[in-house]
Amino acid sequence: MKKKIMWFWYHRLVLFGIVCVLCFSLQFTRVSSFADHDHIDSSAARTLKPEEGGNHQIHCSRERSRAAWKIIQEYLMPFVEKEKYHISRRCRLHPDNDIYRDQEQHKFHIDINEWQCGYCKKSFYQEKHLDQHFDNRHSNLLNSNESQCLADVCGALHCDHEMNSRPKKSKCNPAAAARNKHLCESLADSCFPVNEGPAASRLHEFFLHQFCDAHSCTGSGKPFSRGRRKKTNVFYIFASVLLVMLLLLYYLYIYLYQRGMKRETQMLKRISQSSRKKKPS
To answer: Taking every annotated instance into account, which residue ranges of this chain make up the domain C2H2-type (predicted)?
Structure first.
């Protein structure tokens, strides 16, 4: 009877510990995922003007600009950060030269079928509907006078290669390859001038190998041959930490259970020994 009572309380203790760990982990994930969201929303609220419809059209592909920005972040910036090099605003790849950068930073993927506008908090089922909302309601926030269209450098950055998961086999156009290579080399010259020091010189050489060498119909070079940013899976880290904590609780439960069994065995031995001593000789 006593053994069953101890097992019951140890079992309840383990379950309580697991529930506490799960609650704490979920709360931590929720807070961390919305921390940046709240911070940007508050700053937007201070600078936001009343909604105004845009009377002018921006002739710049948002989709291709987004693809170009993704390529810059994954295939270029890790190496720039490693060299501790600061890209000049003269470079067309600088964030300030992306006309859609501010709007993209105010776009939040809340759930699978929920996208939210960081300016006015309206929600949409798909990202393309949010893009249309930006064009219709918040085009006045675009700095079209100073910013440039990042999609214009897509040819140099191999946006089509990145956007198409299964690129179609097409005959190479030598003239187009030559134009893209010239644009790519001009980006290398303006973003990483070789006369600005060893870091700029190394990045200049890297940029040529990473992007420019693949602009050829010979097929000798491949885009992004120097690799990309290694992604850290947040959910994998969260699951790993949770698994370690659950294992610790499990082994604590086993330890306490065995310790209780040992004590109960010792008590039974003492009781049996004392009963034997009381028997008449």
So the answer is: 115-140
Per-residue pLDDT tens listing for the chain (281 residues): 555 555 555 556 656 666 665 555 544 444 344 434 433 343 333 344 444 444 556 789 999 999 999 999 999 999 999 999 999 999 999 999 999 999 999 999 999 999 999 999 999 999 999 999 999 999 888 876 666 899 999 999 999 988 885 556 678 899 999 999 999 999 999 999 999 999 999 999 999 999 999 999 887 778 898 877 665 555 556 667 777 778 787 777 777 777 777 777 777 676 776 666 555 55
- Number of H helices and number of E strands within the chain? 10, 3
d(CA 137, CA 120): 10
Burial class (CB in 10 A: 0-12, 13-18, 19+), 177: middle
Distance in angstroms (rounded) separating the CA atoms of residues 141 and 49: 9
DSSP state of 56: S
Query: Which of 233, 240, 206, 209 minimizes the C-alpha distance to 222?
Result: 209
Strand order across the beta sheet in which 107-111 lies: 107-111, 114-117, 123-124
DSSP for residue 125? S
Q: What is the pTM of this model?
A: 0.64
What are φ and ψ of residue 222, in 5° steps? -120, 145
Contact assessment for residue 37 and residue 108, using Cβ atoms and an 8 Å cutoff: yes
What burial letters (b/e) apply to 234-270, b meaning 16+ CB within 10 Å? eeeeeeeebeebeeebeeebeeeeeebeeeeeeeeee
Task: Say if residues 93 and 203 touch (Cβ distance below 8 Å).
Answer: no
Task: Measure CA of the first residue to CA of the last residue in the chain; give whole Å.
Answer: 32
